[in-house]
Amino acid sequence: MRQKFVAGNWKMNLTLPEAQALTSEIVQMLHDEQLGADKPQVVICPSFPLLSIVGRLLGEGGNVALGAQNCHQKESGAYTGEVSAKLLQSVGCQYVILGHSERRQYFHEDDELLSQKLKAALGAGLRPIFCVGESLETREAEDTFDFIAKQLKDGLFHLSNEEFDKVVIAYEPIWAIGTGKTATTQQAQEVHAFIREQIAGAYDAEAANNTAILYGGSCNAQNARELFSQPDVDGGLIGGASLKSRDFVTIVQSF
Question: Disulfide engineering: 95 pairs with which of 22, 67, 141, 160, CB 3.0-4.6 Å?
Fold first, then answer.
């Protein structure tokens, strides 16, 4: 069976004391819930300055992995303000989000750059959570599938089978991120199934069946259960709701 995931992307939020409080609450709640053997992999992705302390707090509770929100494509060098995958791994990160729509939009990250970041992350032993998704204009023009197919082909499908096996994919319709709008369960399932078909074509059926595909885009405690019930939706990349401990744990319980 495919691994289920709930990953919290804190974005540029929370001070150190706030992050400590939220992490402790999540760890305690998950411990109290005593989730079964089929529990999802939970990942928390704070901003860079918070990684070490959040990682230590997660280590105390176990079963929750630490992730970063981005990495640089080079291992080291004169890149002031940047953070390498090797550095992230050294502070305990196991995952890194790559290709988030906000990185693509605000920092002009293209598929060529992201392919380099993927290689760097994998080379450092990190598991990438690779994001794809369309804008409202693309969806209204009925170009969603062509657009996502190109993102996958140009940004991801250059990986070897062994490398690709370590990747988690997140489908995030840009029009639903932080807007309160959510793709319907039918829309989410349709795109997730399409992504799985593309993987099968680029690799094989086994790779397609084994790849976890997450939904991101205003997934919350109210709609997570319905979204996660779809056969090709393997969890969520959670934004705003990951900043509220009760909501985030409720989403984890939605399986």
Answer: 67
The catalytic residues are 100, 172
Rounded CA-CA distance 220/243 in Å is 11
Domains defined for the chain, CATH in brackets = 5-252 (3.20.20.70)
Alpha-carbon distance of 226 to 220, in angstroms, equals 11
Kindly state the percentage of the chain with pLDDT values over 90.
Answer: 85
What's the CA gap between 202 and 169, in Å, rounded? 15
Spatial separation of the C-alpha atoms in residues 182 and 219, rounded to whole Å: 7
- Is residue 9 part of an annotated ligand binding site? yes
Residue 119: burial class (beta carbons within 10 Å; 0-12, 13-18, 19+): middle
Tell me if 10 is assigned to a ligand binding site. yes
Task: Evaluate if residue 36 carries a pLDDT over 70.
Answer: no
* Residues 49 and 12 sit within 8 Å (Cβ to Cβ): no
What is the full DSSP assignment across 48-102? GGGHHHHHHHHHHH-SEEEEES--BSSSSSS-TT--BHHHHHHTT--EEEES-HH
Q: Yes or no: say if 71 and 83 are a contact pair by the CB < 8 Å rule.
A: yes
229 annotated to bind ligand: no
Buried b (16+ CB within 10 A) or exposed e, 199-217: beebbeeebbeebbbbbbb
Q: What are the residues facing 128 on neighbouring strands?
A: 96
Give mean pLDDT, residues 153-168: 96
In Å, what is the CA distance from 34 to each residue of 25, 29, 31, 150? 15, 9, 6, 41
**What values do phi and psi take at 74, rounded to 5?**
-100, 155
